[in-house]
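Deliverable D5.2: sample structural annotation.
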Amino acid sequence: METLYDLRIEIEELDDGSDYKYMGTSPDLPNLIVVGDSIEEVLSLAPGVAHVLLETMREYGQQPSLNLAPTSQPWQTHILVSA
């Protein structure tokens, strides 16, 4: 069974004329950058990108300096809702 980590993702809107509208980064996993046309796309891509980044770091003998504790709980996120 794989270890699960609770990874914080910070998403910001890009207004620099780039091809994508949103960018996600993580204070818990340096070098994680995920871009997409919507917040939902960034959130759906982030787990896969983080997994590949961690696997690549391990393959090259780099120990990720994660500020994370393993969790057995399902992941959670916050959503913003206008009313």
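Annotation notes: The chain has one domain: 4-71. The chain is about 25% helix and 20% strand.
The annotation will be released with the project's public dataset once the embargo ends.
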